[in-house]
Amino acid sequence: MAPESNRMAELSRGRIAAAVLAGLVILWLGARWLESGRIAPGLAATGTATAPQAPLGEALRETEPIRHEVIGSVQSRFPVAAASRVAARVVAVEVHAGERVRAGQTLVTLDSADLRAGLAQAEGELAAANGELSRARADESRYAALYPRGSVTASERDTAEAAYRAAAGRAEQARAAVAQARAALAYATVKSPADGVVIERMVERGDLAMPGQPLVRLYNESAMRVELEVPEALARQIRIGQPLAVSIDAASANLEVSVNEIVPAADPRSRTFLVRAMLPSAANLRPGMFARATFTSGTETVLTVPADAVVRVGQLTSLRIYQRGATVVRMVSIGRRFGDRIEILAGVNPGEKVLLVHSRSQTIAGQTGAAQTN
């Protein structure tokens, strides 16, 4: 029985070994089959056609101007602040923000009671001075006539003459005081110094206006300029007369201007220089509007492809490269746009052919095919 048992055990082990070997062979064959259909990392085979299914473009090295962009704002070239020249209470503010005013139009009316009283006092003092002057003039004439006849002494004549001159001086001072009081009374009505648009009324009825205090701010809408904050690293590349392309989105304005003023000192907080350029007259420009300006300095060589060749899926950007009769998808990194071409930072080499997947001809062909199908 023992030999028979041994033969059975050997036979069982042989069958197990054969089954394991067969399983390994099947696994190896399956792995080879799966590996034969695998795509190399970074490339996706999309076909093996001998001719591309879309128009081709080419990756080219091109020389482009170096463009810089700076930001700023629109401002009036002639901002005006109508200010008080006397201390008085505000009686009325005659205008509102956004209102157009003409030169000489009343903006603010101040309380003039004290000013009228001052004028009356000055006029009274002038009347008194004129009376004294008349008396002194008569005395001086009389003493001058009596002196040749010996009726008065030379000292008396000189005293009368000096009194007359003193009275004339006081009368002149009184006349100046009256003129000053009248001018102060006129200042009680604050008028617009120029044509413009009201930006802000800075006082209200009942406020106390002080000399030099702005009451209403205006701007001239026909004289605007753009003020740009240029970083100190770029300031050396800007000169008077530098062409600028200014874009003001709020006004849907794209303007070609030139630099006419560069402030030669940087802002110590932002480290920027103030650059100004005059803007053409436009009714839709307002002070404070955001503006951006671009200018060029020198050239650089960049690698570009047609914009129609770039495919975007989420955050990924790719090109369809046509090489050796096949099309592969390659991930790329893009940069700036230059007209109808886009800068490629990495992922493609100069001279490579790319499919124009968004080309106009392809779109028209697709629309024609759809119409025929319908």
Describe the structure.
The protein has 374 residues and is an alpha+beta fold. The chain folds into 4 domains: 56-61 and 301-373, conserved putative lor/sdh protein from methanococcus maripaludis s2 fold; 69-78 and 220-300, Efflux pump adaptor protein, beta barrel domain (Elongation Factor Tu (Ef-tu), domain 3), CATH 2.40.30.170; 82-110 and 188-219, OB fold (Dihydrolipoamide Acetyltransferase, E2P), CATH 2.40.50; 112-183, Helix Hairpins (Orthogonal Bundle). The chain has helices at residues 2-36, 113-146, 154-186, 232-235, 360-373; strands at residues 56-58, 60-76, 80-83, 88-93, 100-101, 106-110, 189-191, 196-201, 208-209, 214-219, 224-231, 243-248, 253-258, 261-262, 272-279, 290-306, 311-313, 316-323, 326-331, 333-338, 341-346, 353-355. The strands form 4 sheets. Strands 2, 11, 12, 13, 14, 15, 16, 20 and 21 form a 9-stranded antiparallel β-sheet that branches. Strands 1, 17, 18, 19 and 22 form a 5-stranded antiparallel β-sheet that branches. The protein is rod-shaped. It starts with a helix and ends with a helix.
Named CATH architecture of the largest domain? Beta Barrel
State mean pLDDT (0 to 100 scale).
82
CATH topology assignment of the largest domain: Elongation Factor Tu (Ef-tu), domain 3
Number of strands: 22
| CATH C-level of the largest domain | Mainly Beta
